[in-house]
Amino acid sequence: MPELGVIEGYFGRPWSHADRKRVMARLRNIGYGFFHYAPKADAYLRRRWREPHPDAAVAELVELSAHCRRLGMRFGLGLSPYELYRDFTAAARADFAAKIRLLDDIGIDDLAILFDDTRGDVPDLAAREAEIVHLALARTGASRVLMCPTYYSDDRMLDVVFGERPADYLNELGRRLDPRVGVYWTGEEICAREHSAGHLDRVAGSLQRRPTLWDNYPVNDGPRMSRFLHLRGFTGRPGAVGSRLAAHAINPALQPHLSLIPAATLAASYRDGQAYAYMDAFREAARALAGDDLALMLEADLLHLQDQGLERLGEERERLRRRYLAADHPMAVEVVRWLDGAYTVDAWVEDA
Question: Does the pLDDT of residue 350 top 50, yes or no?
Answer without folding.
Answer: no
